[in-house]
Amino acid sequence: MTDFRAVFGDEPREPQVVDWAEVEGSLGIGLPDDYKSYAEQYPALYVGSLITILHPATPTPS
After folding, report:
1. How far is CA 48 from CA 1, 8, 22, 51, 61, in A?
2. Cα dihedral sign for 49, 55, 59, 60?
3. What is the rounded CA–CA span in Å between residue 39 and residue 58?
């Protein structure tokens, strides 16, 4: 997480609350802890058409 902040900075906003048990249950898999940590601190990220990091609190994550 430290390297990510060095590149993109801190987001000045309230953290998004995610019910990880519900998200992982609906996906049928567990998610990595580093992704959960990211998602609790940052919104979805789109860097051109190269990188997309979706967020479970996005209204239409598809």
Report:
1. 21, 15, 30, 7, 17
2. positive
3. 11
* Top-confidence residue, 11 or 24: 24
What is the DSSP annotation of the chain?
A: -HHHHHHH----SPPPP--HHHHHHHHTSPPPHHHHHHHHH---EEETTTEEE--TTSSS--
- What's the whole-model pTM score? 0.64
Asked if residue 48 is part of any domain, the answer here is yes
User: Which residue has tokens 């601190």?
Assistant: 41
Per the model's pLDDT, the better-predicted residue between 42 and 14 turns out to be 42
Give the residue numbers spanning the domain of 18. Answer: 2-53
Number of compact structural domains in the chain: 1
